């Protein structure tokens, strides 16, 4: 029962590999380290005490990826590999469309060739666009405002069309909200390249002294304190949601989208306050202008995942802040020694 994990050395991928190994799955990881580091693989083995197979492969390279399918009896695929920076995608759309779409097409064609028709896809709440009102349900119309989000929406459409052509496939489209936090060990966590785009890694870098202060992108939204409201979910809860989705696709032949969120929205200042309390660190901040493309409020209705996957988030915003800080303070330079 081998599970192939593309992008398994990444932030969410590595946490998911830990949970797969803890559940005694045989795991095969492919990653090209374009947004991760080899050190992660050692940390996963350290945390779990278990081994897994790794290939340093870019999924765009069909012949290299084919060797993986030939060497292993793959029962299902969890597909994380892809670029994910919203701002970068606006600057470099062709790089995003080629990497994310072509990589998925190469993967899906090899899955078809080797009769592997079960996939869990790493999608994103960003496909709900700016016109839907939270709490968000999976049946809402999709739209996107940046090339990164559009690749996610296009891949969902590609997989939908594959299912229509061959209903013996089983496909789970997991729409993540805002993953934060880290494994309780503090040995794996979020390690963004350069200046963090996302809120929590920026906060932790301020707390550890790498950044002067947090810039809060606007406090004039129609929210309780004027700052943006999001559905933050602990990355370990998210990883466990993937295990439930793998169980589902192994047992069924269908295509379903699922929101992986807590169903609760927290503002930027809520997160800052919760982090300061959990870490006992001060996080100075400045209120500046809104960031282009941001929406006021975005949070999930996670009912479908609860009813159909038997999954719901269990960890609190305090747990998320505590574990984010534990990772950052123990690894001030991420995975760089
Ligand atoms: C959260 C809130 C910001 C940074 C993005 C992608 C989404 C997914 C998750 C990949 C917002 C505010 C942030 C900062 C701030 N990524 N903020 N100062 O934009 O909700 O979602 O990441 O799948 O696709 O769109 O997450 O963490 O960037 O922002 O004030 O330095 O924090 O305005 O309200 P976002 P985020």
Automatic annotation (TrEMBL):
Required cofactor(s): NAD(+)
GO biological process: galactose metabolic process
Record domain NAD(P)-binding: where: 4-323
Entry keyword set: Carbohydrate metabolism, Isomerase, NAD
Entry-linked Pfam families: GDP_Man_Dehyd
One GO CC annotation: cytosol
Superkingdom of origin: Bacteria
EC number of this enzyme: 5.1.3.2
Pathway noted in the entry: Carbohydrate metabolism; galactose metabolism
GO MF annotation terms: UDP-glucose 4-epimerase activity
Record's catalysed reaction(s): UDP-alpha-D-glucose = UDP-alpha-D-galactose
Top-rank EC class of the record's enzyme: isomerase
Entry similarity comment: Belongs to the NAD(P)-dependent epimerase/dehydratase family.
Subunit structure: Homodimer.
Protein name, per record: UDP-glucose 4-epimerase
Organism: Pisciglobus halotolerans
């Amino acid at each position: 029962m081998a599970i192939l994990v593309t992008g398994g050395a990444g932030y969410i991928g590595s946490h998911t590999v830990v949970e797969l190994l803890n559940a005694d799955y045989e795991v095969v990881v492919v990653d090209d380290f374009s947004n991760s580091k080899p050190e992660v693989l050692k940390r996963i083995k350290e945390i779990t005490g278990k081994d897994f197979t790794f290939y340093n492969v870019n999924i765009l390279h069909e012949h290299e990826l084919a060797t993986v399918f030939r060497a292993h009896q793959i029962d299902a695929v969890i597909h994380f590999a892809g670029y994910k920076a919203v701002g970068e995608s606006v600057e470099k759309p062709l790089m995003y469309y080629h990497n994310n779409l072509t990589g998925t097409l190469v993967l899906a064609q090899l899955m078809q060739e080797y009769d592997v028709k079960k996939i869990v896809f790493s999608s994103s709440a960003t496909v709900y666009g700016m016109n839907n009102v939270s709490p968000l349900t999976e049946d809402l119309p999709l739209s996107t405002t940046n090339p990164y989000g559009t690749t996610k929406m296009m891949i969902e459409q590609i997989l939908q069309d594959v299912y229509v052509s061959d209903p013996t496939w089983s496909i789970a489209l997991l729409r993540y909200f805002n993953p934060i936090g880290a494994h309780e060990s503090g040995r794996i966590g979020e390690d963004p390249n350069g200046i963090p785009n996302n809120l929590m890694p920026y906060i932790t870098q301020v707390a550890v002294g790498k950044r002067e202060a947090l810039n809060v992108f606007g406090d004039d939204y129609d929210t309780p304190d004027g700052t943006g409201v999001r559905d933050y979910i602990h990355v370990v809860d998210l990883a466990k949601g993937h295990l439930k989705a793998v169980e589902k696709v192994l047992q069924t032949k269908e295509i379903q989208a699922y929101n992986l969120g807590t169903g609760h929205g927290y503002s930027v200042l809520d997160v800052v306050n919760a982090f300061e309390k959990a870490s006992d660190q001060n996080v100075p901040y400045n209120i500046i202008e809104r960031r282009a493309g941001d929406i006021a409020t975005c949070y999930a209705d996670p009912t479908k995942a609860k009813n159909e996957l038997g999954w719901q988030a269990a960890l609190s915003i305090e747990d998320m802040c505590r574990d984010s800080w534990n990772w950052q303070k123990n690894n001030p330079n991420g995975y760089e020694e």
